Amino acid sequence: MVVVNLLEDMAKTPVDPAVGIAVVAGVAEPGVSIGLAVVEKGIRPHYQKVSDEIYYILRGQGVITVDGVKQALKEGDVVSIPKGQVHGFENTGSEPCLVLFASGPKFEPDKDRFFPAG
After folding, report:
1. Residue 11: which H helix or E strand, with range?
2. What is the CA radius of gyration of the chain?
3. Sign, Cα dihedral of 106, 114, 83, 69
4. pLDDT tens across 19-56, in order?
5. Whether residue 118 has pLDDT greater than 70
6. What digits encode the pLDDT tens for the residues 76-97?
7. What's 15-50 look like in SS3?
8. Quick check: 27 and 18 in contact, CB under 8 A?
């Protein structure tokens, strides 16, 4: 068993300059992982070739774009993002937005995070 407190670890996690957010590592098993994205301004558009993702807006609000389709999101909203779909997120609030995310199989950004050209 592994127990992690994402909210406590949030203060110790630096911003990932590749994506523009702080990604708080949660827990992972080969088939699934969960973590927390602290979004001050936005999440740079990217996609995964292997993993599907689910975003849950824990705190704050924003606009997600998935394959060119924009949707406003608020606290409590959940969105699914199938692999291969380019997605990004803009924080439209005045405070950092907290996005709980799950990936299946597990999140491995060094192997399965790609940025569209341009």
Report:
1. none
2. 13
3. positive
4. 889 999 999 999 999 999 999 999 999 999 999 999 99
5. no
6. 999 999 999 999 999 999 999 9
7. EECCCCEEEEEEEEECCEEEEEEEECCEEEEEECCC
8. no
What percentage of the chain's residues is helix, strand, coil (to nearest 5)? 5, 55, 40
Rounded Cα distance between 105 and 20, Å, is 23
- Residue 76 tokens, joined: 């409590």
Token look-up 């291969």 returns: 84
Q: What is the pLDDT of residue 7?
A: 92
58 has pLDDT over 70:
yes
CB-CB contact of 43 with 96 (8 Å): no
Q: Give the position of tokens 């790609």.
A: 114
Rounded Cα distance between 117 and 60, Å, is: 29
Domain 6-104 CATH (choose: 3.40.50.150, 3.50.50.60, 2.60.120.10, 3.40.50.300):
2.60.120.10
Inter-residue contact 74 to 61 (CB < 8 Å)? yes
Length of the chain counted residue by residue: 118
